[in-house]
Amino acid sequence: GAVVSQHPSRVICKSGTSVKIECRSLDFQATTMFWYRQFPKKSLMLMATSNEGSKATYEQGVEKDKFLINHASLTLSTLTVTSAHPEDSSFYICSARDRIRGGNYGYTFGSGTRLTVV
Amino acid sequence: QKEVEQNSGPLSVPEGAIASLNCTYSDRGSQSFFWYRQYSGKSPELIMSIYSNGDKEDGRFTAQLNKASQYVSLLIRDSQPSDSATYLCAVLQPGGGNKLTFGTGTQLKVEL
Predict the structure, then answer these.
(1) Is some CB atom of chain A closer than 8 A to the CB atom of B45?
(2) Is there a contact between A116 and A89 (Cβ–Cβ < 8 Å)?
(3) What is the mean pLDDT of residues A24-35?
């Protein structure tokens, strides 16, 4: 089945530093990747949609200069949290849309990244 | 605002019983519907998808869709403690950039 590899799974960083999270589709090409964040006991909040080779589309209220998204190839998308602060601590999850299968088969999620900013 | 609504629970059922999880959605044009299971601290995993009115069965899981009522449900037969998780209903937005809209999830607890 479709697999999305997400790294790192956990990261602790100091306030003011930047953190990069990678998502790779291992056995399919992902034209679109979605980035979510999830607070404890809350649902997934879509942050942005990234399409291969073009600029990401951010949801309302999400700072594009703070959450930098790059989708340089059909198998890799990255999210960089710049100048991280404690309030950015959250669970970040990516999901990928298969180029061939499209959206009607659901999207595959990465395993998530637990970010803690101290 | 396109919405997907679920009862947050927790829904408690005894082991071996049928668990029934419900979801309503607001966009009548929606065509594709999904159920994800999320264990605490983990990412969601897809367990069922449904596109046509009626029932779709896969092992112990049955998804039900009623587009006229804008209602999707998931039945879990012979519930096991390992089914204890949060179940997320998701709807593919028609013409909405291929986005999935998620409900807030229903926490299911299967008790011994």
Answers:
(1) yes
(2) yes
(3) 89
Nearest of A80, A110, A21 to residue B42 by alpha carbon = A110
Which residues in chain B are closer than 8 Å to A102, comparing Cβ atoms? Answer: 98
Please confirm whether the linkage preceding A40 is cis (ω < 30° from 0).
no
B18 touches chain A (CB under 8 A): no
pLDDT digits over B14-72, tens only? 999 999 999 999 999 898 999 999 999 999 999 999 999 999 999 999 999 999 999 99
| Rounded Cα distance, A40 and A92, in Å | 11
pLDDT category at A100 given cuts 50, 70, 90 is confident
Q: What are phi and psi of A2, to 5 degrees?
A: -65, 135
- Residue of B43, B46, B49 with shortest CB distance to A93: B43
Calpha distance B46→B60 (Å, rounded)? 15
Report the 3 state secondary structure along A32-57: EEEEEEECCCCCCEEEEEEECCCCCE
Predicted pLDDT at A94 = 96
DSSP A4-25: EEEE-SEEEE-TT--EEEEEEE
Mean pLDDT of the residues in chain A: 91
Q: Rounded to a whole number, what is the distance in Å from the CA of A108 to chain B's nearest CA?
A: 7
Question: A93 to chain B: which residues are within 8 Å by CB?
Answer: 43-44
Q: Chain A residue closest to B9 (CA)? A: A41
